[in-house]
Write a structure and sequence with these properties.
The protein has 2 domains: about 35-260, MFS general substrate transporter like domains (Growth Hormone, Chain: A); about 275-503, MFS general substrate transporter like domains (Growth Hormone, Chain: A, Up-down Bundle). The protein has helices spanning about 40-45, 50-70, 90-115, 125-140, 155-180, 180-185, 190-220, 235-255, 270-280, 285-310, 315-335, 335-345, 345-360, 375-385, 390-435, 440-470, 475-480, 480-495, and strands at about 225, 230. It is mainly alpha-helical and about 500 residues long.
Length: about 500
């Protein structure tokens, strides 16, 4: 006998006796009709803005803060790293940060399963978003306030609790939030428009978080008192981004409502059955592996940039923020090109092109240390036009990084633009097999794989720093991040070459 909850392929009928999914409403999903006003679209998409800000701050700067800065408590203004020892060692931070991301990874499919099956007067998605977002915001603020201003095991416990709580709540908020999209509008064209607005706001959030972060950290290096509380740039960022996250998410839920509960929302699968049918989807595994390895590459660049600037180039944090923001801006400029190429040649080909280009471009960051050959070419070219530099080698290093960021901007753009569209194809394939729309479960299963990959980033980078060095004059570990990340992205390319669907 088949397992209870086993669906009939493509019928929506449950072999264990669960009711078939009722017929879809009499609508044409391909029509130009709209279910939402522009204001509703914008307010829902606003919930995606903190997704660009919060994780970028945490991934891009938290490792640098805990391993390179020294905080002073008892009413004293926070000081710069040069004044004292790190709060945590590279190895300890890596284990804690990696463990926290693993908690998020495990939570994702559980949240997806629970959200698909929740029935409440608030809906099945909104309760998660409304009630977990305050905890998410509080954890985001608290992680920047370690209780001891010097190296201490207490800081490790504090980081483990606050960072773990942040990523757990992130899984609980973001998965249900994203799963609302196909429900609030049944029209495919409107979904594309809504996704585009979400993408723009996420990119804006990432630019704000990267560029503004470096500027604020550098500007408030000596600290400032707010309501009598001493805050350095990192703490100011934490408080500001935490409040911004809560406001944006609550506004999104205020102006968008779920459709009423109906039998069409009843997904009868038990958890094991739901997982099994997700993994059976022939599109899912190549898709999720490629996205996950791509994530390792992008996060590695973001994490290493403050170290690359501060320990290799010997520049201040504001330059690191500008370079982090530059790759996002360069990628955003490529969005229209990626969309056109995907329409002309297919999503599969262009995503493969992005994976290949990223795998080839990342190792070029290695040469910025002693042989920035691309940068030397730029400096010499500018010299022909009479442009001179006080430090030609330093100028060549910066030029080298900028050109590499330009090279990888198209691949990064494919990571921003194409996965949502590919994900929709994956979920459509599942509906053909099971008869149900299980976006939250797929978001959750993608989360457990991609977040496990993200959990590897602090482990990889901190071990490289520990083994090969991340200090001025001894920074091979920082330079190795690019080539190592490139290997992982290449594995993503190998995985996606097995994606069977042709556009």
């Amino acid at each position: 006998m088949p397992e209870t909850g086993e669906p009939g392929a493509g019928t929506g009928a449950d072999a264990g006796g669960a009711p078939a999914v009722p017929a879809a409403p009499a609508i044409d999903p391909h029509s130009d009709a709209r279910a939402l006003t522009f204001w509703q679209k914008f307010m829902y998409a606003l919930g995606n803005f903190p997704q660009g800000v919060g994780p970028a701050i945490v991934v891009g700067w938290l490792q640098y803060y805990y391993t390179k800065t020294s905080s002073s408590l008892d009413g004293k203004i926070t000081t710069d790293v040069a004044a004292g020892a790190a709060l945590l060692s590279y190895a300890v931070f890596g284990y804690i940060a990696g463990g926290a991301r693993m908690m998020e990874a495990i939570a994702n499919p559980i949240v997806g399963y629970l959200s698909d099956r929740t029935t409440s007067r608030f809906g099945r998605r909104r309760p998660f978003v409304l009630f977990l977002s305050p905890v998410l915001a509080l954890a985001l603020v608290a992680m920047w306030f370690p209780p001891v201003g010097s190296a201490s095991a207490t800081n490790g416990v504090w980081l483990g609790v606050t960072l773990g709580l942040f990523w757990l709540c992130y899984a609980g908020v973001v998965g249900p939030y994203l799963s609302l999209l196909p429900e609030i509008t049944p029209y495919l064209k409107e979904r594309v428009t809504l996704s585009a607005i979400m993408g723009v706001l996420e990119v804006v959030g990432m630019v704000v978080s990267t560029v503004l972060a470096g500027i604020v950290i550098d500007a408030y290096r000596a600290g400032v008192r707010v309501a009598g509380i001493p805050l350095d740039g990192y703490k100011l960022l934490g408080v500001g981004v935490g409040l911004l996250t809560l406001v944006c998410v609550w506004l999104a839920m205020r102006f968008v409502r779920e459709t009423p509960h109906s039998a069409a929302k009843e997904v009868p699968f038990q958890f094991g059955t739901a997982v099994k049918h997700t993994l059976r989807n022939r599109l899912f595994v190549p898709y999720v592996l490629s996205v996950s390895f791509f994530t390792i590459g992008i996060d590695s660049v973001v994490v290493s940039m403050p170290f690359l600037v501060g320990r290799v180039l010997l520049k201040n944090e504001d330059l690191a923020g500008l370079l982090q923001g530059a790759v996002v801006v360069f990628a955003a400029l490529m969005f229209p090109l990626v969309g056109w190429l995907a329409g002309r040649f297919g999503k599969r080909r262009i995503f493969n092109l992005g994976l290949g280009g990223f795998a080839a471009g990342l190792p070029l960051l290695f040469f910025v240390g002693t042989n920035p050959f691309i940068g030397w070419g730029i400096v010499k070219l500018l010299g022909v036009f009479g442009v001179a530099f006080a430090s030609p080698f330093g100028a060549a290093q910066i030029a080298h990084i900028v050109v590499v960021l330009l090279i990888i901007s198209f691949p990064v753009a494919t990571r921003f633009v194409l996965p949502r569209a590919i994900f929709a194809d994956v979920v459509d394939e599942d509906e053909k097999l099971t008869g149900y729309r299980r976006e939250a479960m797929y978001n959750g299963m993608e989360g457990i794989v991609s977040k496990t990959a993200a959990a590897l980033v602090p482990l990889i980078t901190t071990q490289l720093f520990r083994l090969f060095g991340a200090e001025p004059g001894h920074s091979l570990g920082v330079l190795l991040v690019g080539p190592v990340a490139g290997v992982f992205v290449f594995l993503g390319l190998v995985a996606f070459l097995r994606y069977p669907l042709r556009d």
